[in-house]
Amino acid sequence: LVEPTVAVDAMGGDHAPAEIVAGARQAAAAGQRILLVGDPSRIGDTGGLPVLATSEEIGMTEDPGRAVRTKKDSSLVRAAEAVRDGKAEAMVSAGNTGATMAAALFRMGRVKGVARPAIATVIPVPGASPTVLVDSGANVECSPAWLVQFAEMGAVFHRLRFGVDAPRVGLLSIGEEPEKGTPLVKETHELLAKHGSGLNFVGNVEGRDVMSDTADVIVTDGFTGNVVLKTVEGAMKFAFGAVLGALRSEEVPDSAAASLMEALLPLAAEMDPDSHGGAVLLGVNGVCVISHGSSSARAIVNAVGVADRAVREGLVEQLARAVAPPG
Amino acid sequence: LVEPTVAVDAMGGDHAPAEIVAGARQAAAAGQRILLVGDPSRIGDTGGLPVLATSEEIGMTEDPGRAVRTKKDSSLVRAAEAVRDGKAEAMVSAGNTGATMAAALFRMGRVKGVARPAIATVIPVPGASPTVLVDSGANVECSPAWLVQFAEMGAVFHRLRFGVDAPRVGLLSIGEEPEKGTPLVKETHELLAKHGSGLNFVGNVEGRDVMSDTADVIVTDGFTGNVVLKTVEGAMKFAFGAVLGALRSEEVPDSAAASLMEALLPLAAEMDPDSHGGAVLLGVNGVCVISHGSSSARAIVNAVGVADRAVREGLVEQLARAVAPPG
Question: Number of Cβ pairs closer than 8 Å across A and B?
């Protein structure tokens, strides 16, 4: 068994290249094989890590399709090519999400049978099984057959990542009844209800189930998924801000605030997006981990860990086996 | 000026009729004119409030359209008729939401020029202007012209309710750029951007802006709006539960936990859905307030207050003036 090499896009992200390279070095120090991809004149001291030298980079707000088409020597495109060409087994980027998807799709291609790759995001729910939300942003408009594949891929992803044998798959709607929702949701519900190959479909779920223990995988189109993901982020930011504000209020003695902070730390750590290693683009013919734009070195270490495990667990092969041909 | 009378559906809601009648009596004790609508043999002591006697009721899970068509002597249908016939100026129900919409629409009719009524829900954001989310569930599928009307109606509603002169109207999408989102969002963005009549359109907003101070009114289709609303509810429930759990941990001294609880109380009170008086169905030819299913007496008092103010402020007339004819 060969040790997986993870190609890290050193130029992508709000804190690139410094935090990215720092994270890659930490991962390497812990035994991970790393291929840094970026501009050697800008990435600083790599601590002896191998570098795939590139001359261009794709900005966070550039048009993804055009950027990937025109910037052939960008770190993002070269990272995807490294996976395609077998120089690495997986890639990690904290750069432009749309461009990361486009680079992975155009350079690695799709897993045979997959109609559309989708982004799987892990929403931590301390005290319950984490929720995998798929698609959380790759496909604004979807067909029922694609959503069925998102369910199949999401279940494989959850099983490998969290060891749940038959993850509960819920379809996001506005009521539990099969006849509620958009035509897309109603048709998808029908397809999932008669799905044969061991998918543990628990029916429709609602927005309130995203942070509960109702389903392990929640399937939706990329527009709704992205809105939900950001709504959760905003609500959590608001809630933690409000609690911190209360802790600072004059009625709370400093010693009380300190003990409360300590009690809240494990929760805050578990909710911290840097702990989760990023979203995974499911359905491309290689492992592609999308870390969030403001990734710290720690986020990169965790993203590299997610990428490494996905390779070792044979994520891509398992996805290929799980997807039914789109109807 | 005649004092507004509010028709209260005594039979609707998880805690009907006891909590509903209790709330109606409290509102009446504070000077509100009330018309209770329900089964006299079941609503108990009304404390002398007038009762419009009905013999049927619509269950929380009944099919809305059929229930309203077949149960002509239900409390919900009769409450809507009371507004249509001038026996009351507004109605309040904590019953079946779909049936409440259907009863209001079929019995009161639409405001002239309104293509589709929409539900406006207030999401409290302590420390910032509350967010009015419209449509939060009435119309699963929408056209761009309808969304423009939701924007117009939502702005009127926010102005009257919170006294903000030119409420900022945002369109819910998955990025700030006008070219992001579904075809519905892109076409609506174009229409709103060239909207002439004083609509303060601030462009696309994202899920994370629902609980921030970015926009006062957030416009979306009823599917996405309902998912967002329930996601916020679920996230807040999770967050408060997690904080309470941390407070109960052994490392936190009881006195520290008590002082933080005290500091958090105003926030919890502000976030409590019972404080907000329910959602308002905008665009029907009368005031219709939809209180949540688990409404307590206090929720009903607040819903009646919202209904009363909407009548006094001339909500329906202002909506009629604000809507442009649908394209």
Answer: 174
3-state secondary structure of A313: coil
Pairwise CB contact (< 8 Å): B252 & A260: yes
- Which residue of A lies nearest to B180 if distances are taken between CA atoms? A140
Residue A248: how many other CB atoms lie within 10 Å? 11
Contact (CB<8Å) A211/B234: yes
> Which residue, among B227, B236, B252, would best test binding to A if mutated, counting the most A CBs under 10 Å from its CB?
B227
Q: Which of B312, B231, B313, B319 is nearest to B281 (CA)?
A: B319
The burial of A110, by beta-carbon neighbours within 10 Å (0-12 exposed, 13-18 middle, 19 or more buried), is given as: middle
CB < 8 Å from B in window 16-45 of A: none
Residues of chain A positioned with their CB less than 8 A from the CB of B293: none
**Taking the mean position of all CA atoms in its chain, how far away is CA A137?**
10
Structure tokens, A225? 């998924």
**B106 in contact with A, Cβ within 8 Å:** no
Residue B264 vs residues A240, A249, B270: alpha-carbon distances, Å: 12, 10, 10
Per DSSP, the three-state class of B142 is: coil
Q: Give contacts of A171 with chain B, Cβ < 8 Å.
A: none
The answer to whether the beta carbons of residues A300 and A19 sit under 8 Å apart is: yes
Output the 3-class SS for A71-113: CCCEHHHHHHHHHHCCCCCEEEECCCHHHHHHHHHHHHCECCC
**CA distances, A1 to each of A31, A161, A257, A312 (Å):** 15, 20, 51, 9
What is the bridge-based pairing of β-strands B51-53 and A217-219?
unpaired
Nearest CA among A227, A223, A228, A260 for reference residue A244:
A260
Residues B125/B211, Cβ–Cβ less than 8 Å: yes
List B residues 235-254 in contact with A (Cβ-Cβ < 8 A): 235-240, 242-243, 245-247, 249, 251-253
**Token pair belonging to B311:** 């009548």
Q: Which residues pair with B6 in a beta bridge?
A: B34, B90
Under 8 Å between Cβ of A80 and A92:
no
Strand A131-134 vs strand A118-123: parallel, antiparallel, or unpaired?
A: antiparallel
Taking an 8 Å cut-off on Cβ atoms, the answer to whether B260 and A252 are in contact is yes
Residue B144: which of B219, B255, B44, B66 has the closest Cα? B219
User: B91, B20 in Cβ contact below 8 A?
Assistant: no
Q: List, in order, residues 6 or more apart from A327 with CB less than 8 Å away.
A: A144, A145, A148, A191
Per-residue pLDDT of chain A (327 residues; tens, 9 = 90+): 679 999 999 999 999 999 999 999 999 999 999 999 999 999 999 999 999 999 999 999 899 999 999 999 999 999 999 999 999 999 999 999 999 999 999 999 999 999 999 999 999 998 888 999 999 999 999 999 999 999 999 999 999 999 989 999 999 999 999 989 999 999 999 999 999 778 999 999 999 999 999 999 999 999 999 999 999 999 999 998 888 888 888 888 888 888 888 888 888 888 888 888 889 999 999 999 999 999 999 999 999 999 999 999 999 999 999 997 665
Query: Do β-strands A51-53 and A287-290 pair in parallel, antiparallel, or remain unpaired?
Result: unpaired
Contacts of residue B247 in chain A, CB cutoff 8 Å? 260, 263
Rg of chain B, C-alpha, whole Å: 20
